[in-house]
Amino acid sequence: MNAIILRSGRDKAAKHRHPWIFSGAIQEVIGNPTNGETIEVLDSKKEFLGMAAYSPFSQIRARFWTFKKEPINIDFFKKRFLFAFQKRKDFQKYSTDTAWRMIHGESDMIPGLIVDRYNDILVLQILSSGVEFHRDIIISALRDVTGIDNIYERSDVDVRRLEGLAERNTLVSGVVPEEINIIECDLKFIVKVTTGQKTGFYLDQRDNRKISSKFFMDKDVLNVFSFTGGFSVYAVHHKAKSVISIDSSKSATEIAKKNLEINGLDGANCEWLVEDAFKALRTMRDQDRKFDVVVLDPPKFAATQAQVERASRGYKDINLLGFKLLNPGGTLITFSCSGGISESLFQKIVADAALDAGVTSSIVEKLNQGPDHPIGLNFPEGAYLKGLICKID
Ligand code: SAH
């Protein structure tokens, strides 16, 4: 069997069951594994460590499937799926929501596979060559375990290039309409599975939308980076006085407006700005506009460690503007979904922003990704979404 041998002293992460093996940790490749093929991982004394997927084009040269000697076949994936679904059962059984992340890559021990469920449709995203290599049996296993045949693949993301894979956006099987309606917290949302951002909806913010709702009643709300209006719909539903939403995407904003309508909510006190958020916030600051609540949920500013410094400036910039636009007693609900920005760094950036804005502020709630986006204890990198609800004096 093909194998890799790790360098002496470079097997610590593997022994702590971290799923990634970086190229620098590899002493020798035995055999001639192709992209995504299963290999054995051995330590420098040739002791077995686990089974992994080989990824010759990536700095993450291999990803562990398992730390046991077992075949990586359809039964293996079925078993993994059942574990993942079991993990979600406890909180799903109390919910009427119809959309969930079912498989969350490394944290569900299937590195590089994302599966989101929207009603009776599964949307998968393949981010690693290992999952790509086993694509057919993974799809069969998914079908068998869920009984769902409506499957769409949204692997049209540029990180696939790092794995030597081309982008793909395709119907796998069954019927997947262009637009579907999901339910979250008894509210309806339109999801465009085939053309929307991500796999169609930001499921990771579900709990944070709910938690934020208690701050909206009778308030003037500014929702920045509003996408299809998640926080805006919650704000109107929870009786905000007015809601201004800003997003650079026209198509997302069109859906946001429809989302209000399909929930029977009155959009009379809503304004939708299709603009660059940085520019719009500066204009509002110059006009001395004020709000009671500002929500900041920007896209990922730092995809890699190298981009952290630039990303930090971006976060500082919008949070500074956010604080400046608040009335006394106001609430800033602010997020970062950049894996490279740690929770403590994010808190520091927000603290610096408050300082520069000349406000005194404290955190009243700390927020994370929802429980259907678990964080493997062996994979701290999985904790990518963090949020702070800050009140100012
Ligand atoms: N809060 C949303 C998710 C936001 S995702 C929800 O709960 O569903 C980030 C959004 O930022 C995307 O909709 C994207 O279109 C938007 N965006 C990215 N860059 C932007 C910019 N410079 N100005 C305004 N919006 C931007």
In a nutshell, what does this entry contain?
The protein is of the alpha/beta class and 393 residues long.
Can you tag this structure with a few keywords?
Transcription Regulator spoIIAA; 20 strands; globular; 3 domains; 7-stranded mixed sheet; 10 helices; 393 residues; 28% helix; Rossmann fold; 6-stranded mixed sheet; alpha/beta; binds S-adenosyl-L-homocysteine; Archaeosine Trna-guanine Transglycosylase, Chain: A, domain 4
Ions, cofactors, ligands: which are bound? S-adenosyl-L-homocysteine
Radius of gyration: 22 Å
- Global mean pLDDT: 97
The tally of strands reads 20
Report how far the terminal alpha carbons are from each other. Answer: 65 Å
What count of domains describes the coordinates? 3
What's the helix count? 10
Q: What would the CATH topology of the largest domain be?
A: Rossmann fold
CATH class of the largest domain: Alpha Beta
**Helical/strand content category:** alpha/beta
Strand order in the sheet with the most strands:
16-15-14-17-18-20-19
CATH architecture of the largest domain: 3-Layer(aba) Sandwich
Strand content: 25-35%
Helix content: 25-40%
What coarse outline follows from CA principal-axis ratios?
A: globular
